[in-house]
Specification:
By secondary structure, the protein is α+β, with helices and mostly antiparallel strands.
Length: 770
């Protein structure tokens, strides 16, 4: 026991000795190295999906009408509850009922948001910007769920519009408004709502004993003449239905005594927008069309009714909003049973305004009948205002045929598939090389640069070497003597190609490569005129890069193209002293009983940029084209009663015979008849001096004689307005339908020629250019 106690005491003493301060402890093995510091722990944090980004994606897709993308952003449960088709239909129907705008129809602002790891709630203020009802605002509550680490919309109908929760729907009830009418300058209707009658016949059912009565009655009611109706009857099978055209009910009623005696004649009554005289300036006035299936949703959102027609071309299209007026509508909210819950919005009706055009109806009608079977255009414009008095594009078409209420719609050929595209407006959108009429511009460039003056002279031979190439004059091709020594004005009078080839070359050599193209732009070429209907700009090269290019431009060939309207505009500017007026077709716009909302005032597009002295030189040369015995238009125009100036043109093209041009203006100074510029272009008709100049004469003669003086019979006519058979036209020019004559114009048995007109006189024997 004592031994154990001693041992225990000894252990305690040893322990105390080990804890005594200052006592070194020796490690027989050595001091161990400290353990290295452990690296900081890496914490990986997965960010929560961006709620605002999900909301923006959904709302931006809605703004773009991208319903498929919206559907892709829905939660799985939402996609199981509604198909893409039903989802798209609900949004589409709502957009139509609201008449949502296409751009920014939906705008929004986030009001608040609450987010937790798997669910989010966002409140938005949404504006529905509409065509009809202004802006409607609603507060939407959007719920989102987290799926596959992305936010998806938990969708219900309240996200279209809170009003639609529970299966409610929107319904728009539209109110139509009368369409404005289109009038000629004298107030006579061109297009108006009218009781009309479609007229046709079956040859086999006609009474042989009453054929004379049939022909004369049909000629009174339609735009066709007796001989044309006879040809139509003889060409058809016995029981074919032959559509003749349309007439007003008043005109049909006035002829009912004769009609009641005729068998085989069909009269189909309907009320619709009616185009008088078979369509006066139809390419310019335009026509209506129905909403296609492809465009239905678009037009319904604009507020149109499904069966409504709208302007498809011409003034009908350009002034659609003016003519159609303000359609009225009421927006209702209905329950699933179709009962009205409330009226959400309403818009009143305003009738369409009517348009009075600048078109002279008598002149327009007769010029429409003057181009025979040629494709071409005529523009008649006042020189001091830009008012377009006539705009002809040939061939013609009947705009009444675009109405399904018209029985002839079923039987007549659609104008859009007829030969030569009669709906196409060649006056404003046809782009053609100008040929020698362009020499007016080249002469202006030559004078303005100072490279040439009016006293300069060259020998106009059969050919000339320019830019290292031998180029030929039209006298060589016609096998007539060369023109000889000519001053610059005489070069325009004779349309001497060598003179203008030389101008093109010398402008390049004297450091004026862009003089011609810059002058052309000053004349308004290569750019739209600003006329109210659709047009093309033509083409003037951006720059001239070589001599050959400039030489071709100098005679109106090569890369340049123009529209007949552009040529009429600059011809008027040459006539009036250099002011380039914007062409216009509109005199006034307004309600029938009220102050016009618009009245025409001339608008200046620019100035030709030619000095008065040089412009006078050009004008004198254009007078010599007609008055000088050697002028290229002398034979056709020298004996006109109305003082005129002009330039012939024959434009080569890769599509057949040359295009025939004539551009000119008058200087009659009649206070009751403003002076006019007239441009004529006939596709593939040959020489401008022989084919286009006579049309200029007719246009001027009709205008100043109040339609009594026809000028001359055209080369292709049997007598005034009647195409000769067979028609002497190039084989590559297809022949459209017969050319009608206005029924109010008596047809003389023989067309008189003014006694002062020397028939067959050649004006020096070589006064015409090719």
């Amino acid at each position: 026991m004592i031994k154990v106690q001693r041992t225990f005491i000894l252990l305690i003493l040893l322990a105390l000795l080990g804890c005594t301060p200052g006592t070194p402890v020796t490690d027989p093995v050595g001091t161990p190295t400290a353990t290295a510091t452990l690296p900081d722990p890496q914490v990986f944090i997965t960010p929560a999906p961006d709620v605002d980004g999900a909301v923006d994606s959904f709302m931006d897709a809605w703004r773009r009408d991208d319903y498929a993308q919206m559907y892709d952003l829905l939660s799985e449960e939402s996609r199981r509850a509604v198909s893409l088709e039903d989802f798209t239909a609900r949004y589409t129907q709502t957009a139509i009922a609201l008449t949502l705008l296409f751009d920014d129809g939906i705008t929004y602002q986030v009001i608040s948001r609450e987010t937790n790891p798997d669910f989010a709630s966002v409140r938005l203020n949404v504006n529905y910007n509409t065509n009809f009802f202004g802006t409607l605002s609603r507060e939407l509550a959007m719920s989102l769920v987290r799926e596959a680490n992305a936010w998806h919309v938990a969708w219900d109908e309240g996200l279209i519009m809170p009003d639609l929760v529970g299966g409610n729907v929107l319904e728009i009830v539209r109110q139509t408004t009368p369409r404005g009418e289109i009038y000629a300058s004298d107030g006579s209707p061109i297009a108006a709502q009218e009781e009309a009658v479609a007229i046709g016949f079956t040859p086999g059912n006609l009474n042989p004993d009453l054929m004379s009565l049939f022909y004369t009655t049909m000629a009174r009611l339609t735009i066709y003449q007796v001989d044309e109706i006879r040809e139509m009857a003889e060409a058809a099978l016995p029981f074919d239905y032959v559509p003749l055209g349309e007439a007003t009910r008043a005109d049909v009623d006035a002829n009912m005594g004769a009609l009641s005696s005729l068998s085989g004649v069909f009269l189909n009554y309907y009320t619709s927008r009616f185009y008088f005289d078979g369509g006066l300036a139809p390419q310019t006035v335009g026509h209506l069309t129905y909403i296609s299936e492809q465009e239905m949703n678009r037009y319904l959102r604009l507020g149109y009714a499904p069966n409504e027609r709208f302007g498809a071309t011409g003034l009908e299209l350009a002034f659609e909003d003016v003519l159609s007026g303000q359609r009225g509508a009421t927006l209702y909210l209905k329950d699933p049973d179709g009962q009205i819950i409330t009226r959400l919005a309403e818009r009143g009706v305003s009738p369409g305004q009517s348009i009075t055009t600048t078109i002279d109806p008598g002149l327009q009608y007769r010029l429409q009948q003057s181009l025979g079977n040629y494709r071409g255009a005529i523009v008649v414009m006042e020189i001091d205002t830009g008012r377009v008095l006539a705009m002809v594009s040939n061939p013609q078409f009947d705009p009444n045929l675009f109405d399904i209420n018209n029985q002839n719609f079923i039987y007549a050929q659609n104008p859009y598939v007829q030969p030569n595209d009669p709906v196409f407006n060649r006056a404003t959108s046809g782009q053609y090389p100008l040929g020698s009429v362009f020499k007016i511009i080249s002469m202006a460039a030559a004078l303005e640069t100072g490279v040439f003056d009016q006293t300069d002279s060259i020998y106009c031979g059969h050919s000339v070497v320019v830019c290292g190439n031998e180029l030929y004059d039209w006298t060589f091709e016609r096998e007539v003597p060369p023109s000889g020594n000519l001053t610059l004005p005489e070069g325009l009078m004779r349309s001497c190609n060598p003179w203008f080839y030389t101008i093109g070359e010398q402008l390049m050599l004297t450091g004026n490569p862009d003089a011609i193209i810059n002058t052309a732009r000053n004349f308004g070429l290569g750019q739209p005129t600003g006329v109210e209907v659709g047009e093309q700009p033509g083409n003037i090269p951006a720059q001239v890069t070589n001599c050959e290019q400039n030489v071709q431009l100098a005679i109106g060939q090569g890369e340049m193209t123009v529209t007949p309207l552009q040529v009429a505009a600059f011809t008027a500017a040459v006539a009036n002293g250099g002011t380039l007026y914007q062409p216009t077709l509109i005199d006034a716009i307004g309600l029938p009983e009220g102050t016009p909302s618009y009245t025409f005032a001339p608008e200046v597009n620019g100035n030709l940029g030619i000095s008065d002295q040089n412009l006078a030189i050009i004008q004198d040369a254009m007078r010599e084209v007609i008055a000088n015995p050697r002028g290229t238009a002398q034979r056709q125009l020298a004996t006109m009663r109305y003082r005129s100036f002009g330039k012939t043109g024959t434009a080569q093209n890769p599509f057949g015979a040359p295009h025939a041009w004539f551009a000119g203006y008058t200087q009659v100074n009649n206070p009751d008849r403003p002076d006019i510029a007239v441009v004529v272009m006939l596709e593939n008709a040959g020489e401008g001096s022989e084919m286009a100049a006579p049309v200029f004469r007719r246009a001027v003669s009709l205008y100043f004689s109040n339609n009594a003086d026809i000028g001359r019979v055209m080369p292709w006519e049997a007598y005034a307005y009647v195409v000769a058979s067979p028609t002497p036209i190039p084989t590559e020019t297809p022949v459209p339908t017969n050319t009608p004559i206005p029924t109010e114009t008596p047809i003389p048995t023989e067309t008189p020629i003014p006694t002062e007109t020397p028939i067959g006189e050649e004006g020096g024997g070589s006064g015409e250019e090719p």
